[in-house]
Design goal:
Length: 67
């Protein structure tokens, strides 16, 4: 059976994690949300959130190892 991780590096996404990411990104609204969430700011009691750039970088690193 093949290794369930794309590479042996602990920073890489597992096959199950990649499937979850691709499922989430298959929805156009979710993809648009990634664009909207590019910046986080705090105004008074309101916080506007941003993307998890570290996980996005980790995903891209995993994909580079696969393709």
């Amino acid at each position: 059976m093949p290794n369930m991780y794309m590479r042996c590096d602990h920073r890489m996404f597992s096959e199950a994690e990649l499937l979850a990411v691709f499922w989430a990104l298959s929805n156009p609204t979710r993809r648009q949300m990634l664009v909207w969430l590019g910046v986080a700011t705090r105004r008074g009691k309101w916080t506007y959130y941003r993307r998890d750039e570290a996980n996005i970088a980790r995903l891209l690193e995993t994909l580079r190892g696969v393709f």
